[in-house]
Each structure stands twice: as C-alpha cells, then as structure tokens.
C-alpha cells in the first residue's frame, strides 16, 4: 500500500477492509494493531475507502477499546 497505494483498485481496497475487520479483536493484540495500522495506511492513501472502514472496522475497533485487556486496573 505504501509504495503504490494510489494504484490500489476498489476490489483490493475492499479486500483489505474485509480481511482486517475480523482481526481487530482482543484475541491477539499484535495482529489487531497490525490490522488497524493497515487500515490507517489505506485511509491515508485511499480516502475514498473511509465509508468501508467506518462500516466494517470502526465497530470492531470500538469494541476492542472496551476490552478488559485494554482497561487499566487500579493498583491496590
């Protein structure tokens, strides 16, 4: 995406979004971070992909943000 992102077609863009959406979960935080980074890169190169990312990835990202794994526990 970074080298030739302007030439990525609509089908490939949809494929990236579709592949990234289920990876944005608390099952593997490293994979989730990489999927979110791929979507951020995609948005930077293909702003027209914003509706697809908002519809498919954003709900997953918001759910991930509420995961107990990402919530700080008070030290006692």
Description:
With 76 residues, the protein is mainly alpha-helical. The model has no long low-confidence stretch (mean pLDDT 88). It is elongated and about 55 Å long. Helix 1 runs antiparallel to helix 2. It has one domain. 57% of the residues lie in helices and 0% in strands.
Descriptive tags:
elongated; 76 residues; mainly alpha
Ordered list of secondary-structure elements with their pairings:
Elements: H1 10-20, H2 29-45, H3 50-56, H4 58-65
Helix pairs in contact: 1-2
In short:
The chain is built from four helices and no strands.
The whole-angstrom Rg is: 14 Å
In terms of DSSP E residues, the strand content is under 5%
Mean pLDDT: 88
Indicate the low-confidence ranges by residue numbers. none
Number of helices: 4
Q: Quickly give the structural class.
A: mainly alpha
Distance between the termini: 46 Å
Helix content: 55-70%
Shape call: elongated
Number of strands: 0
How many domains is the backbone divided into?
A: 1
Helix/strand order: HHHH
Mind describing the biggest β-sheet?
none
């Amino acid at each position: 995406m970074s080298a030739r992102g302007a030439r990525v077609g609509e089908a490939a863009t949809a494929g990236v979004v579709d592949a990234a959406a289920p990876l944005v979960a608390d099952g593997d935080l490293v994979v989730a971070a990489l999927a979110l980074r791929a979507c951020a890169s995609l948005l930077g190169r293909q702003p027209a992909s914003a509706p697809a990312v908002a519809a498919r990835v954003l709900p997953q990202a918001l759910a991930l943000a509420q995961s107990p794994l990402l919530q700080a526990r008070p030290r006692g």
